Amino acid sequence: MAQGVSQKWTAQDVPDQGGRTVVITGANSGIGLEAARVMAAHGARVVLAGRDRARTARAAEQVSQAATGAQAETAELDLASLESVRAAAADIRARFPRLDLLINNAGIMFTPYGLTKDGFELQFGTNHLGHFALTGLLLPALLDVPGSRVVTVSSNGHRAGRMNFDDLMHARHYSKYTAYGQSKLANLMFTYELQRRLSAANAQTIATAAHPGTARTQLARHMSPLASASMSARFAALNSWWVQDAPMGALPTLRAATDPAATGGAYYGPDGLLQLTGYPVLVRSNGRSQNAEAQRRLWAESEKLTQVTYPV
After folding, report:
1. Catalytic residue among 174, 177, 180, 310
2. CATH superfamily of 11-306
3. What pTM does this model have?
4. At the N or C end, where does the chain have fewer CB atoms within 10 A?
């Protein structure tokens, strides 16, 4: 349930972002692209990180047109390859020694069974482990920057997720829905454990999270044709209560990234029925995501799997 915060927060409420450098993963479409446009229009220098060079370059061109003087650059990043994650992090840190904001936005959903280049189940490896590694490698550029943040995009799907520590990669039994739920639960558990560590280190950086509700994006491309059709904008008169366009879906991410009142561990989502649509407010994740012992265990497993350790 939404907490007592102001309603109808919109992109117009984003404070001036002049002088800030922002890295957004998966920013070549959907929510990531919308967030990049808004951040650039408010003065931020935005680094769009994506695996497809041509698509990312086209998206950066769109972002550069968001406002006079908008700044957009690109970085090549494939979250399904730790080699690529390390190369992208090195490239970004070489060009931008000081970062103000990292938005872990990229994700995949309901994919057929597959493995990353490092042998991880594809959804867990991309949605969680890739971002865990990238954040750890970029964190030194954020830690001493006042007002810096790490925002990780989760999903309502986390509520169906369970951390199967005995079979994190679903090698014994694969359900694309179960695997997705686990990866989105991991996003939240990662955020909460990261915030605990940042607080203990008295770091300048905070960790927040967001979810878009149900948004029309390319993330739904692995859904059934019937489910995809039911979300179509052609049927907005019927489905507007449970699905919204990408600009609205991006608002929780933008609020988690820029609201001066946001605190470490804050989680934002839509204020409508079942948090499916609406304007961004503080929301609460499920009890499993709040389990501190499981958070620590996930962190230890993630360090072991990625071979990335954090400076906090």
Report:
1. 180
2. NAD(P)-binding Rossmann-like Domain (3.40.50.720)
3. 0.92
4. N
